[in-house]
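In this supplementary section we document a worked example of the pipeline. Step one takes a protein sequence of length 759 as its only input; no multiple sequence alignment statistics are reported here. Step two produces a three-dimensional model, which step three serialises into structure tokens for compact storage. The input and output of this example are shown verbatim.
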Amino acid sequence: MQSSVLIIFFVHIVSGLNIDYQITTMNTMIDRLIEKMTLEEKIGQLNLISIPYNSTRPIASKNEIKDIENGLVGGVFNSYTPDVLCKIQKLAVKSTRLHIPLIFGLDVIHGHRTIFPIPLGISCSWDMTWIERSAQVAAQEASADGLHWTFSPMVDIARDPRWGRIAEGAGEDAYLGSQIAKVMVKGYQGNDLAKNNTIMACVKHFALYGAVEGGREYNTVDMSRIRMYQDYLPPYHAAVDAGVGSVMTAFNEINGIPASGSKWLVDDLLRGQWGFSGLVITDYMAINEMIVHGIGDLKHVSALALKSGVDMDMVSNAFLDTLNTLLKKGVITQRQIDTACRKVLEAKYKLGLFDDPYRYCDNTRAQTEILTDENRFVAKEVAKRSIVLLKNAHQTLPLKRQGTIALIGPLVDDQRNVLGTWSAAGNKTESVSVITGIRNLVGGQVNIVYEKGANIIDDIDILKLVNAKGGDIELDKRSPEMLIKQAVRKAKIADVIVAVLGESQAMSGEAASRSDIGLPKNQQKLLKALVETGKPIVLVLMNGRPLTLLWESKHVDAILETWFAGTEAGNAIAEVLFGDYNPSGKLTASFPWSVGQIPVYYNHKNTGRPYNGTGLGIDRSRYLDIPNDPLYPFGYGLSYTTFKYGPLKVNKRNFIGDNEILTVHLSILNSGLYGGEETVQLYIHDPIASVTRAVKELKNFQKIFLKPKELKQVSFNVTVNDLKFYNSALKYIWETGEFIIYVGPNSHDVQSISIHWSM
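The serialised model returned by step three reads:
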């Protein structure tokens, strides 16, 4: 035993010495390089440009080519494939005086060529193993396609589904968002950035971007410091603790200063308090946009960004155009330029680009590691786990493998929209539509009839906007009335209707805010006509945000939320519909009753006049026309089986000091006929504290599989770290008092037990 301990101790010592040696070697190499660099070359490293993708050659302007040859570009994004990127890299390495390689990036948000569900969908799996695996596959494919860097994960907490970019994140909860941030970084970066199958991650948008006012893209953010620290900053911090290589600043302002110019945010918080030592880049044109914010002219905002701790300017050329002059005038210092340049060079060093600038230019990997059968299998497994069953009246699902099924809707035979927003190098010809997936699974067992029934959207004004950002929607030549009439005719001969409705992928994501987040009006008309047939209806949704589904929840028999499920969408949806996979997804963002409820989220605070949902509630904090609670709460998701929760038990009720551990345990019984997974969720409420606290906060969860009639014991350990919060002085503390422990299948349907913990 003693010898084993000594061996472990020795391994840790050697490992630490090796890391120190690597850092010393890197610093020595970069010190020597910086000494040789001219001022212009240093500033050039801070310049990140966009060169659009072309399958045979880089589409670069003459000025961009000239800048690369002169060492005035540090990195390029929006191009990929080894052939294209090798041409650009050779231009930099062979033409520049010091042969410094470029870094290549792309928005690989939820897969590269093999597309996974949108991040909001992936988060609904609550499965950290599969989430990490999705990032590993994305990194493997992106690196095989010549890339070094992804602008992911996006970890912005979002409580307003009007905001289109809610699709890119993990929903409304900081704890769950933090767990996902950590595994995404690990999946992308592995344990060694220099390996040719890993890529550098970039956490974004730092910070608070998910709290834009009115859910409107690029809008203002204004919140208290306590709310920042408690509810919005933790996922960024988690990514930093996980070793993320880079951070992207947000478009929004914080405390009246745009994020890219905020010294408090970047230098004091990110680098000072959190100890981040990696690369900081701006979002697209963010430095220039500070001028429109009203902060100053180009020279002023460029100086502000550099002084705040920004290292790399995305696209705007602000650093390239101003830093030389600003240095001569004494507005900025040589040390500030050198520090930013060093961060760029360090990222390239860690990626192994100084050892071999062409290490990612391997056409063999591109041909053998992209869109493989294994990668598609992983995509299908993740997609199945991301699907959330919202309603299943009369055991409508799973579908029987007999009779006639009517597939109705504009998204039934659609290969583009299943890929979702930010689908990187995804190709719609390689994706599986719903009708193809169903035919693949049960084509020889059931009779399938199909009608489109409606366009995705008929509103011409909105259609123009959606198509301008890649919607690719073509209106059917048939009139809306004829589309519905023909769909109803097919529906009437079926035993069951599967209506596949929702959004275009371009109706969510960046610059895709919506004030009305229900199904488009023309699709609602179609659904109402289908309901009038009296046939059982399964509503399969494709969308990038929580929707308002009050009418739908009352009138259809089953609702399956599939998000935009990626390359294998059709196969995954088919397996869930027919019971080959029992849905296990749980919502990570609340579905509101109506837009007027927004923002609605589970971990809100009490008011001085809370409404408990019973009685008239006169002079209480409530709506006159709808409940306070969402239609479908955070953590909610049904199964084809039923899980019965036994009573909560604890090891004791009174605890003292920092070192004790509360053990919460209960039994879970699968009382149904199907094997299935259940996500058991633990929440804590601190009813009396020095600052007001949320009514409950997620602190832990476990995903377990139970066979039919199987009983399992589930236990959670709770420590004082789970009781901590930020007080008015922004100290992360816990306080003596009562704590209420909640456990349940979602944030609403919980049982509780009270304990006391004192200092």
